[in-house]
Amino acid sequence: MPFNSKRSIVRENVPGLVDVGGPGIVDALAGDPTFYFDREALGMLAEDQRRWSYRYFRPFARLASRVVVTVVLVVKRLMPFEWSNHDLLDRLGIWFLSKFVSDEGGRLLLRHFVIETNILAFIARNTGLTEPVLRPVNLDELANNAVIAHDLNLYEVLAGLKGEDLPPPAGRHLDYTMLEVGELSAGDHRRVMRLDLETGLCFMNVAFAFLTTTTEYRKAVHSLQLDESILSILSELTGDSLFLSWRPGGFNPLIRTNRDVPRDLFVHAVIHEYAHARLLELARRRANSASC
């Protein structure tokens, strides 16, 4: 990824002053061989976070989203009945992503669906479980309860392990062939706005809280706490302790629903990017060893 090569206004021949031009943080990360993150995804993320909405609108959207969602959940708990509309949730989400979220943000969201499925499929295939197959390649494929199914796949894979010990890495030939990420498209729709993904998630969180039952919403939010389990399982299967360094803070039994969901979801996606890139690196090393 090339960095901005414009010269700094600071003259090189002035003693004691540093030229602040040259590579930036994204360029440094792109060049870091220990930074396990797909470089194309890093470029999309950097482009998405340069948008005005990320800098100026996101902080207010995060606060508003959390307040509105809290009010919605309290009101729904006080009602004598609950309502949900998954079909409307799908159609509203696809419409919002295609009209108000940037192309980079849409592709990053699709990429997370595919990557999480790949990671769960890696665990499932190498432990004898049924593999999830949810890999949307465009926004229209987010229909048919894809968001809810995305969370359920995580619960089903972990529950399917039944608390049994995982086999030691030395005694298992791991299969890495399910890790491919194909071409993703957020469509060529004419967008009214191009919000960054994290700001868009603030609005989508409100719709999700309103159009699902409180049980469904809690289950989706609680799934964010299972990253620690996923990373621990990957470490056990591969024998690679690096996965453990990406575990988020906190403890799984301390279940929380009242949290900054858009921000936590964004962190959740980044953690999965790390894990997926590391699995691809382990697959590459195994292939190189086999060819020697």
Task: Report helical residue fraction.
Answer: 55-70%
- Oligomeric state, counting identical vs distinct chains: single chain
Low-confidence stretches: 1-14
Largest sheet: none
Q: Using only CA atoms, what is the Rg?
A: 21 Å
Class by SSE composition: mainly alpha
**How many strand elements?**
0
How many domains make up the coordinates? 1
Given the C-alpha coordinates, what overall shape results? Answer: globular
How far apart the termini lie comes to 31 Å
How confident overall, as mean pLDDT?
A: 88
| Total of helices | 10
Beta-strand residue fraction: under 5%
| Helix/strand order, N-terminal first | HHHHHHHHHH
Account of the 3D structure:
The chain is built from ten helices and no strands. The protein is an all-alpha fold and 292 residues long. The chain has one domain (37-291). The chain starts with 24 loop residues before the first helix and ends with a helix. Residues 1-14 have low confidence and may be disordered.
Secondary structure topology:
Layout lengths: L24 H7 L7 H11 L2 H27 L7 H15 L2 H23 L20 H15 L36 H15 L2 H9 L4 H12 L22 H31 L1
Helix pairs in contact: 2-5, 3-7, 4-7, 5-6, 5-10, 7-10, 9-10
